[in-house]
What does this fold into?
Amino acid sequence: MRRYFPLMATFAVLIVLFGTASAMYDRFFTARVVANLFSDNAFLGITAIGMTFVILSGGIDLSVGAVLAFTMTFVASMVTEHSWHPVPAISLALALGVALGGGMGFLIQRYDLPPFLVTLGGMFFARGMAFLVSAESITIDHEFYTALQDIKIVVGPKAWLKAVALVFLSLLFGAVSLAHWTPFGRNIYALGGNESSARLMGLPVARTKIQVYALNGFCSALAGVVATIYMGSGNPAMGVGLELDAIACVVIGGTLLTGGVGYVAGTLGGVLIFGTIQSALIFDGRLNSWWLRIAIGVLLLIFILMQRQLSRMSAPTKN
Amino acid sequence: MKQDDPFSTKSAFGGLTLAGLMALAVGCGGGSDAPTPSSSGDGSASTPSGSSLTVGFAQVGAESSWRTAETESIKAEAEKRGVNLKFSDAQGKQENQLKAVNGFIAQGVDAIILAPVVETGWEQVLKEAKDAEIPVVLVDRGLKVSDDSLYATLIASDFVAEGRMAGEWLAEKSGGKASIIELQGTPGAAPAIDRKKGFEEAIKAHEGMKIIASQSGDFRRSGGKEVTEALLKVHGDKVTAIYAHNDDMALGAIQAIEEAGKKPGTDILVVSIDGVKGAFEAMVKGTLNCSVECSPLLGPLAFDAVEKAVAGETLPKKTIVDDQVYDQSKAAEAIDSRKY
It folds into this structure.
């Protein structure tokens, strides 16, 4: 029961926030606002899911926002300036994301380097590459994109889930299955819980570590693809600081920053909390938008403190 | 004992979380409880708020004094006309602006004023606004869409003309001879593209005028300073003029020139665009040579357009703001009347 406590706390916070906003603002408690939460935060959500795996494994990845921007400009440039069909452009972009993530994972694993520094390097590299591909935002005008953008599932009056939200939700279900019902998922939890025990148990520590970063590279690139669908363009300046928002969502979602403990479902809660606060501020229209940062900061501190208390409590019971 | 322990701590956490939320709620309440008479119960009913309009304003951010002046002008005009203004500061990020516009649509505002941070990537969100029959008035920067019925009108200065005026002024002042460093704005932003274009057009006629280096200072004072520092190190005494896409970068460049041991305004001519108060002060001091005005006081024009668009009138696609050139000779008498 206790291990579910952070998860329950996350969703309790979400419900209270959403309830408060619904009481305060006209038209907040509508299907449209909920559907917008999933569409507008799809790429944040996708990077946060990837980040959940990295943090569960005991690592961190600062490159995600930059990889998203690189993917966006790469796809936009290939489609618009080099007349590629979007499908091969997207496929290649995803492969590049996996390669970059896997490469960073390899460096971290093989040379025992701190993930913080390796992925910081990855961040600068990918951001630089994004601006190298194009210093300006590029429009994507292609039938395939128009078709994707027209996909919508109606979920209420004037409310629909668009392709980007559907990708996010599909990835979410995939990620939950991956985390809880596959050997790969179990290896990640074991690795994050205690790396040397995992090694002694004969688990494939090296392979899992590299795979985690490759998976996150995939998620970052997928987030970039989703962002191109969301906006119909590739902007090299997108996603600055996105990695920090993603980390905040993961921690507010109840995942322990030191690894080994947490749930992908909690991350969804974290993302929705983030989106709800932002929407409420837009609905209010009088408050300074920096309240979002302040609120996220306060929540982050509360959750870290809570986790510290929980892990203190659980330490003696293990013996 | 073991059973009891976690329980008590648990409730302590409940308390903590709650306290945090209370703090947040108080934070929110403090700003909004005073003038909000519009929360009228359940959200199902569509509420055209009778006489007064509700307008959402998706602003880029507060990155320069120019933009702050624009925000103030729009806020002041909204108050004057009794418009219920929803203001959102995107902190310089397009993703935040998109969310703001989507939020305004969900809220059912009567009109949206948008100052787009970059030119592309708006097609989707503008279609949503059009489907919801909410007119969008663009201010200060244009955008690229396949169908220009997606917005009502653009209220802006002609950036190309501004760049041209800056170039012509410099050509006259320097006698058609100059080695110029160009400080560009944010890559991809319309003013950066157009001011570059206009300036290049103006100096093309003069063989002695060359841009020897052109880099982005991101419209920031710190950016202008850093880029100038670096470029002065590379090009040294060759540089005779600096052209900045906005005043803030020029003010940063002036600092960098002084630190390099030269006299800005004399050894190196400095020309920029926007005409903010700080630029006028620098012109009076003699460190800045010329600033082409780009008025941010768009409030009155913007709400005229909003009112017409809401009333169903068709507007011209572009409304151009009339801008002037100010140099040191005119700066002193004009400085007191400047509002931004």
Observations:
- Residues 291-318 of chain A form the longest helix (28 residues).
- Chain A is about 75% helix and 5% strand.
